């Protein structure tokens, strides 16, 4: 069997994809510009997707790539172009991409970038699978950890369908072990919650009391969230709830998080 490459394989999602693939008995190569520890049994190759240096060597003999690397600071489109071109040269048969629910209907700049990468992949000539997921538990935790620095917390009147990265990683690994499927059904968390109930859950789990103040934010971006374009709605694929996630992490410090992907590529 040919190796599977995971870009951003040291990030919050990527490292879980790596573990799942290793558990399935596959050889895994982790690509990242960050020299963090990787799952035992995988092989680490330092590659900066922004420059593309070392990509051709890293993809030689590889059958499948799972592209988890992303960053909020810009450059995803350029990195993806280099990755997809190198994958094409190497004869990679399958490229799996993790994206975000609602990127074509909510005009966030980061979402526009994710949509542009989806379109690049569709036009690349590669066999591909794209899956969009709802917001990760880590993102919701990070939002309220940041807002909770103040005793008064503004809470927008919007809903989320948060999902655990372990559930998403399992599905991505399953897709990577299969054949290219194009755009597959969106992947949603186990429940739809309004932001206020998620805020209450977070502050209860962390033992802090905060005054939650409803806030209606104008503009097209928040209108997209109020319309529920960030939700799957008819699919509840995840199994781990936000409360279960919080119970496991109650003593941990929230980390900086990048929505539906991992930094490090």
TrEMBL record:
Highest taxon in the source lineage: Bacteria
Cited Pfam families: NAD_binding_10
SUPFAM superfamilies: NAD(P)-binding Rossmann-fold domains
Gene Ontology process terms (BP): photosynthesis
Keyword Glycosyltransferase among record annotations: no
Domain NAD(P)-binding: 8-136
Swiss-Prot/TrEMBL keywords: Photosynthesis, Photosystem II
A GO cellular-component term linked to this record: photosystem II
Protein name: NAD(P)-binding domain-containing protein
């Amino acid at each position: 069997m040919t190796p599977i490459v995971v870009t951003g394989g040291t990030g919050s999602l990527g490292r879980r994809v790596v573990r799942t693939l290793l558990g399935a008995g596959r050889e895994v190569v982790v690509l990242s510009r960050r020299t963090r520890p990787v799952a035992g049994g995988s092989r680490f190759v330092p590659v900066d997707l922004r420059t593309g240096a070392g990509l051709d060597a890293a993809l030689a003999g590889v059958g499948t790539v799972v592209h988890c690397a992303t960053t909020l600071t810009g450059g995803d489109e350029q990195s993806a172009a280099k990755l997809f071109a190198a994958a094409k040269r190497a004869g990679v048969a399958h490229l799996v991409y993790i994206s975000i629910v609602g990127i074509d209907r909510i005009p966030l700049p980061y979402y526009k970038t994710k949509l542009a990468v989806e379109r690049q992949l569709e036009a690349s000539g590669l066999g591909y699978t794209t899956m969009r997921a709802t917001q990760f538990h880590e993102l919701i935790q990070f939002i309220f950890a940041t807002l909770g620095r103040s005793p008064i917390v503004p809470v927008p009147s919007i809903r989320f369908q948060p999902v655990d990265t372990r559930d998403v990683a399992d599905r991505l690994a399953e897709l990577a072990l299969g054949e290219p499927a194009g755009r597959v059904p969106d992947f949603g968390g186990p429940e739809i919650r309004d932001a206020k109930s998620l805020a209450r859950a977070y502050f209860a789990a962390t033992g802090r009391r905060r005054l939650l103040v409803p806030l209606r934010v104008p503009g097209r971006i928040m209108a997209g969230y109020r319309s529920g374009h960030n939700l799957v709605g008819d699919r509840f694929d995840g199994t781990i709830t936000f409360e279960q996630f919080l119970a496991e992490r109650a003593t941990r410090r929230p980390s900086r998080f990048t929505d539906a992907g991992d930094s490090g590529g």
